[in-house]
Fold:
Amino acid sequence: MQRNATIGIVGVVVVSALVVGIGATALGNPAASARPSTVAQVPTATPAPTTSGTPEATVEPTASPSPTPAPTPTPVPTPVTVPGALTGRPLSPAVAKRHPIAVMIDDLGAARPQSGLSSASVVWQAPAEGGIPRYMAIFQDSLPKEIGPVRSSRYYYIAWAAEWRAVYAHAGGSPQAKATLAAKGRGQYVYNIDEFRYSGTFGRVTFRSAPHNLYTTGAKLRAAGKHQGSKDKAYTAAWTFAPDAPLDARPVGGTITIKYPYNTIGYSYDRKTNTYLRSVTGEKKETDKGTGVRIAPKNVVVMRMRFGPLNDGHPGAPRLEATVVGSGPAWVFTNGKTIKGTWKKTAITKPTRFYDKNGKAIPLTIGQTFVQVIPGNYPFTYKAGTNPPPAGTTPSGSPAPS
Structure:
């Protein structure tokens, strides 16, 4: 009995303690008395610990940057070009309007190799006194930094330069040439740039002996021409130009030989480049001293013309005059082919043109042209090339190596 009484006392004590605790809770939180005895437990978010009384700002996630698009390339404008009047080459409009410049160039052995011939648009070569040939190079497409040696003028060269009313550079000349330039040298025929008047435009080099050491530049001649009144303008081509013939239409080989009393000029047709590789007595591979470029025009024209002594009192071999206005036989070599025809020039300032046997203008290949003018008694020969080999064979006709 005593044990049971003890258990009863303990139970009363426990129950009393629970009642006291619940009452204390209810007294400290009046709202608690209103809650039912059984309450559903709702989970609550645990606040993030802070180091101060101010809660941290919520960090929003940063969006990934979009890839930068590649810049659109600026289109490169296609250069505007026009055909050059002297060569048919595509040139900028400014270059195509350049006033042509003609320069007399020496051809004695002591003057070789000359400078500027590879850069000329057209080169004329004809005999002077004693059968010694002389060049006149006409520039438009490019203006070389070295041209020479510069020599004296003759009337028939003035007539060819007058076809473009060119700026005409020379060092003196025959009495006939000087009289013509005095009367027609301010643009009527040409713009006269004589070394004796424009000495600052020319200079003496140290790698040649006089009189083969007078040189000039394209830029200086342009400046002198403008001083004389020349102006750039649009030019109309005197000749018809066409692109290179396709390789399979070009022959293999072919040569041209022109004999002046003083030297012999030779051309060897090169099928690959569609050019005529030039040689002269003493120089098997004629090369421009100023540029180091082999002389190799796209076209060669041979003209027969009447020459005779001028009888102007010149001591020794007489100076020559030529029938530049008129017509005569001509051979045009282009694309490895030979076209026999006629040259015609109707007036001093009119162009020299070339016609086939049917009277149609002979088209030249785009590029440089050399015109060889010879009297009727100068030897001139040519050898045609052979037909191109069939596809897949060498020029000799044997199968190409595999």
